[in-house]
Amino acid sequence: MLADINSSELGEFCVALHPARTAEFMEGLTADETWQVLAFTDQQTRVQIFSYFSAEKQEEILSTQDRETISVLVAEMAPDDRADILQDLEPQLLEDLLNRIPAEERRDYLRLSQYPDGTAGAVMTSEFAKLGADLTIQQAIHEIGRQSEEYETIYYLYVLDDEDHLLGLVSARQLLEGMRNPSTKLSDVMETDLVTCAPMEDQEDVVDKVARMDLLAIPVVEDERKMLGIITHDDIIDVVQEEATEDAHQMGAVNPLGETYLRTSVLTLSWKRGIWLMILFFFALLTAFALEAYDNNLTRWVWLVPFIPLVISSGGNSGSQSATLIITALSRGHITLNDWLQVILRELWMGLLLGTGLAIMGYCVAVFFPGVESLHAALVVPVTLLLVVIAGTLTGSILPLVFERLGLDPAMMSSPFVAGIIDIVGIVIYMNVAIWFLGMPPVN
Amino acid sequence: MLADINSSELGEFCVALHPARTAEFMEGLTADETWQVLAFTDQQTRVQIFSYFSAEKQEEILSTQDRETISVLVAEMAPDDRADILQDLEPQLLEDLLNRIPAEERRDYLRLSQYPDGTAGAVMTSEFAKLGADLTIQQAIHEIGRQSEEYETIYYLYVLDDEDHLLGLVSARQLLEGMRNPSTKLSDVMETDLVTCAPMEDQEDVVDKVARMDLLAIPVVEDERKMLGIITHDDIIDVVQEEATEDAHQMGAVNPLGETYLRTSVLTLSWKRGIWLMILFFFALLTAFALEAYDNNLTRWVWLVPFIPLVISSGGNSGSQSATLIITALSRGHITLNDWLQVILRELWMGLLLGTGLAIMGYCVAVFFPGVESLHAALVVPVTLLLVVIAGTLTGSILPLVFERLGLDPAMMSSPFVAGIIDIVGIVIYMNVAIWFLGMPPVN
């Protein structure tokens, strides 16, 4: 394909579309072909298109193409994107590339890469528009027009003192509106009540602030408001998606991957799943021993056995529904710990309603089930179902609240985990209801 | 508290902070008190603070305070926020308020409210900055400075023809950079390769576009690019969070609520859960009948019974882990249908690894379990566990892929649903492995 197209056409192709679209079109090419096409564009477009490639493709290009031209590209990348991609490289390649890029970019990378994954520092960029408080609106506009290519956003302009302490914020909107009085000083129009975050702050908390305040970007500051960088709206969207995926994994009893599914090796993945499967296995073992303890019941009334999965799955399912609802409501801020009584009362009501529904269906089946002696004996099934479903909704709602109260992540109360706990409770309820309705079996 | 503070202090309080923070501080006040405090601020600040109240508080204020002043506030709100809050009001109150606001705002509401929840039209706002293609950069800046208060964002300026067809986009960044050549026409600098969306497009697809392209806002256009409105970055974050919650609910076998947990009535919630509980109940019934069919096995080898929950929960748990991984990877775009073979092979490997792990633990327990006749008989447990876990990982990965292929939402393959299916498969495997190792039991 490349052979057929002349260079000016390729160059045109690269600039005609939004860089994200160009990147999409090129996703099918090999690393060599991609690099050849990119050679026809100017440096700035090349960096932009490259930033939109998938992490796999970026890594492949960085590790296979000419180091010298690669290092120029790396030096030009946005600091946060650069830190993300460099961190995934082989140590040797990383060192070589770092040695080839200018000292300023190298220091910048080392500073950004010191913050652990999941913190504000790890997603911030160090390129933001800085202005002095003494500038007038006219001067500020001039300054921005001159430097804007360097910054990720110029819609929020940060006013700093000589030692990079954050004094205030002027939006591009204020600048445009302020054109009527171009000699006004920035210090007279800047906002000073700013929402900021610390570099070690959990990225989830940062997202909450930005989402609640509808911000375009949030400054990351150290002690005494010394400004380190900003996190922009597009990175916030990425973080929201990443956190949602992690929560979903945790709720499905998989430890967060930190990578995409296909990029995680089968061994790592097995470990992240296996640890939970083992914990759940021990719960299931307890259930096995609980059943063993009621051996006599089951030998005497064999028809109780087929209903075991029905009983435990009804409890497990209603419990995991409750856990899902409470975990998502907690993480979205729709409920707080102060609502605990209301939550538990609501779940009790739901347990009663849902339990009654299942009990009616269960009784209809039990009455006609082979081996069930009488209408009275069949009552064991509906009464158990009602109690188990109530136990499920209560456990499923109380456990996440307790975890939240202890300062742990409520999402760890995954559906399978809640179901595992209810299994044991369910068996104990079932066997005791059976004894209550059918009498103690003879000891053999 | 209100009595102690004089009016100028209250007015100051309202403007000193970001409106979102002021709104937070006032969340504890009653509707009457809130309205009294807001009376001390100017109209614009009042509208801003009001927009940040929770939906509950907004509704309470709208339904209890003086209709005439309320309608002034409603008329001034951002069109998309206004549509959201008005849709939740009592029909009578809504009609009364609509009659009191200016005709233009009324028409605007009726247009926005026609789009169903979950579409681009339902989240867009109709207030965006429009410019003619013939304007120069100088004129555009002047125009924006004059009108900017009306628009939600002035960072993207849309160039339209006389009949509102979208011709291009000029960013505020380009305007500021273009100050050097203030007489350039907008038509010479505007971007024309625009990413747009249709009003009936699924909001999830809109989010994907915005996230992939790192956009600040996306225009909503009808046929022939007639522009209806825009969706801004802050609404996109809200949509991402909302969709993540819906997916989590669906994966936990709860139909999406469309409201927060506490605002959904217990009856509605019971219905959204009950429908799934019933479906899962029927799966569990099938399991019961499957067990009944193997009645003879269980009477002959009673020690098989306590392992029933262990077998089905191991399959269910590994299956719901796989389903969680595949559903999230599909929704994030980390895998596509083309990866099906790779996904299935990986899951097969993981099933082998995880199944072997559980089998070893299971055998150790079975050997010492009361009633198990021999080391050979105890083999039933590990062999079953291995096969059931493999069945679990395969079912959990294949079902979401099939649903995606059929154009259905893969998130409907919830953990409990997958677990329900594996339960039946697990019982059948267990009983057949038992017959294989222990021989056919005598028919009684």
What does this entry show, briefly?
The first copy, chain A, is mainly alpha-helical and 444 residues long. Chain A has helices at 7-16, 19-26, 31-38, 43-51, 55-64, 67-76, 79-87, 91-100, 103-112, 120-123, 137-147, 172-177, 186-189, 203-213, 233-251, 266-293, 295-300, 308-332, 340-367, 375-378, 380-405, 415-438, and strands spanning 130-131, 156-160, 166-171, 217-221, 227-232.
What are the defining features of this structure?
3-stranded mixed beta sheet; homodimer; two-stranded antiparallel sheet; 22 helices; MgtE N-terminal fold; mainly alpha
Structural notes for this entry:
The structure is a homodimer of 444-residue chains. Chain A is built from 22 helices and 5 strands. In chain A, α18 runs antiparallel to α19 (340-367). In chain A, 47% of the residues are buried. In chain A, 63% of the residues lie in helices and 5% in strands. Chain A is mostly helical. In chain A, β2 (156-160) and β3 (166-171) form a beta hairpin. Chain A has 3 domains: 2-114, Alpha Horseshoe (MgtE N-terminal fold); 130-241, CBS-domain, CATH 3.10.580.10; 266-438, Orthogonal Bundle (Tetracycline Repressor, domain 2). In chain A, the strands form 2 sheets. Chain A has a 3-stranded mixed β-sheet with strand order 1-2-3. The model of chain A has no long low-confidence stretch (mean pLDDT 87). The interface between A and B is large, with 120 and 121 residues.
